Amino acid sequence: MNTMLQAARVGIATLSFEAVSFEHRGQPLLAEVSLRLEGCRRTLVLGPNGAGKSLLMRLAHGLLTPSRGQVRWDGPPTRQAMVFQRPVLLKRSARDNLLHALAVKGTPWRLRRLLADGALAHFGLADLARRPARVLSGGEQQRLALARAWLLAPDMLFLDEPTAALDPAAIRAVEAAVDDFHRAGTRILMSTHDLHQARRLADEVIFLCGGRLLERTPAERFFSAPATPEAAAFLRGELIG
Amino acid sequence: MRITATFASFTTAAAIGLASITTPAYARDDAPYITLASTTSTQNSGLFDAIIPLFTAASGIDVHVVAVGTGQAFEIARRGDADSLLVHDTAGEQGFVADGYASERADVMYNDFVLIGPADDPAGIADAETAAAAFAAIAEIEAPFASRGDDSGTNRAELRLWDAAGITPEGEWYRELGSGMGATLNTAAGMDAYVMSDRATWVAFDNRQHLDLLFEGDPALFNQYGSLVLSASKYPHLKHDLARQWHDWLLSDDGQQAIADFRVKGQQLFFPNAKPDARTSTAE
Amino acid sequence: MPQHDSALATALALILERDPTLLGIVGLSLQVSLSAVMIAALVALPLGAALALWRFPGRGVLVVALNALMGLPPVVAGLAVYLLLSRAGPLGELGLLFTPGAMVVAQVMLVVPIIAALTRQQVEELHHEYHEQLRSLGLSRARMIPTLLWDARVGLLTVVLAGFGRASAEVGAVMIVGGNIDGVTRVMTTAIVLETSKGNLPLALGLGIVLLGLVALVNAAAHLLGETARRRLG
């Protein structure tokens, strides 16, 4: 749908983790992670609880600063957006949430209403435009968060367990939205607990365990023949980490 | 953008609020006025409410009265915040002229102080020969006495009387309140204390409870009011022309008559006694 | 007690008779206090929000100072403004002393610490919830201020009301810098002090009841507004 977006995506800057470690109060939470993300693939971050998935996303998005090592972007400036597990929406109407994001982005005043209503319609929220965002259902709130990310036309989108608290219908809507972003040329980095979801969405998988990056593999190979015993155990549903 | 709109309307509202506040002040600039620092006794008795409209009608000048204790009135004038001064502390006023803050002082009127106390009069001051004797009687039995304790004209006069009686008032019974006349009367009424008041405030005072007027008439209790013309060289920004008109009107036949005509509950409270030849004057 | 009865009767009579003097006093009280609160809010809301968002050396001291200033005795504020605006003071040229403008200045001094300190608390809490999302959206700290203030608006309404309560109830400051001049700077509270000192307690108490009613009215209006917003915004 959004050819304007696609045209802008000639080359997305390369995101590199160079021996990135993160500690909190002396506790090492992420150790020596090195990683390069290029192009506009869908990369799924998998791993047990406490593996450091959210941390990896936040470091990549710049919400946190590494204790050691560095996170680098090489190439043209990137627009980024992030969708959190629990969407943080402003205490305003659904539409005003989108208008706010557009205002921050610097979209000309006259275009904002048009773009916001377009995004609301695209994510099936047109009827809820004037409803306060905080009283929407969980699925509606997450769709609104996606619509907000959509309006930012990101080169790279981070999704941190975006479907963890949602019912199946809402999960389908989120996955459809991820596809939309992908088709529009956005690089996706998404963490999830849901292996089925990972199978449906992933081009490749990053497997974290105990704060270490154990494996980075194309999706098909990860699910059929994981390289590490930890990943194999994880796929069998055993408790690890 | 909605936020900007909100802030914009906020700012506008504030601006309008400010404008509406300052406008009356500017509007009043067209109608000339002076600021008069004076005492609570003249204000609370209603004297100004009676005579200022007459002056305004005759001169077109409004008088803004800031009524405070005599000590504070001197301070306001000393800082150049009042155009004119009407107080009752002759010695202090003469000192004010001598120090160069004021160029002229004139007697305007007097009222008198009265001694108030519980109606049963435990110290028996109603029978005293003089005010000093009455004070001595109160100190003798250490009956509660409420003093202004605020360096006002009344307070200063009271201290002079203790001095005349040869007594240094101190102890549990002598309560320095640090309050205006009305507040002091309220407190005295609450604790059945003796208190010295100017007659004007007493006559107009409604919350008497058990208090009664017990002693009056000693010339030592006369309370002289003086009007001061502030120094034009020291305070060039003041409205000296207008203040001069007020000063002169107070001393004029019209002004003196207005003071004499003022009555509260049928009683005359202030007695005009301006004597043009008695004005003290210093060269500017 | 008969005195209370007559005070209530006096209050009622004051309201019913629409005494022009009383209306003038009420009008001036509202004008002065509302202006002071509005100006204070314009200063203190962004100030409090900025204090919630920025970390810098000396911030702790500033926060404690602001909290302490919430308890600034009105008389002290009045005295400070008096010395400032007096002819002998640094701003004497303005000729503001003994005008409503001076009263506004004094009340602004009293209200700014309240609004700023309480705003800091509320914005800090909200920022805790919002900061990742706002940073993700690319907001600079300065740009966060209007966003957070607007989203905290329901709570901040109460904060501003607290400021209004302080402004309209205080007497020490306006007495000193306004001078309680009849028809010029006489407001509800100074009128009450004056009537008390005249021993006219029923009238003083009656004025007090009118003042209380007025403050209650403003609070009720704001409460209604806040509740509606709360219900609508979830």
UniProtKB/TrEMBL annotation, chain A:
SUPFAM superfamilies, alphabetized: P-loop containing nucleoside triphosphate hydrolases
GO biological process, one term: transmembrane transport
A GO molecular function held by the record: ATP binding
The entry's keywords: ATP-binding, Cell membrane, Membrane, Nucleotide-binding, Transport
Subcellular localization: Cell inner membrane
Topology relative to the membrane: Peripheral membrane protein
Domain ABC transporter, residue spans: 15-235
Record carries keyword Transport: yes
Gene3D superfamilies cross-referenced by the UniProt entry: P-loop containing nucleotide triphosphate hydrolases
Gene Ontology CC terms, in alphabetical order: plasma membrane
Similarity comment: Belongs to the ABC transporter superfamily.
Protein name in the entry: Tungstate transport system ATP-binding protein
UniProt organism field: Halomonas organivorans
TrEMBL record, chain B:
Signal peptide annotation: 1-27
Gene3D superfamilies: Periplasmic binding protein-like II
Name of a matching Pfam family: PBP_like_2
Keywords: Signal
Residues covered by the PBP domain: 35-254
SUPFAM superfamilies in the record: Periplasmic binding protein-like II (SSF53850)
Alphabetical list of PANTHER family matching this protein: EXTRACELLULAR TUNGSTATE BINDING PROTEIN
Name of the protein described by the UniProt record: Tungstate transport system substrate-binding protein
From TrEMBL, chain C:
Pfam families tied to this protein: BPD_transp_1
Membrane topology: Multi-pass membrane protein
SUPFAM superfamilies: MetI-like (SSF161098)
Gene Ontology cellular component terms for the protein in this record: plasma membrane
PROSITE patterns: ABC_TM1
Residue ranges crossing the lipid bilayer per the database entry: 34-54, 61-85, 97-118, 154-181, 201-225
UniProt KW keywords: Membrane, Transmembrane, Transmembrane helix, Transport
Superkingdom of source: Bacteria
ABC transmembrane type-1 domain span: 26-222
Main location: membrane
Location(s) in or outside the cell: Cell membrane
InterPro entries noted in UniProt: ABC_perm_TupB-like, MetI-like, MetI-like_sf
A single BP term in Gene Ontology: transmembrane transport
Homology family: Belongs to the binding-protein-dependent transport system permease family.
NCBIfam families for the chain: ABC_perm1
Name of the protein described by the UniProt record: Tungstate transport system permease protein
Annotated organism of origin: Halomonas organivorans
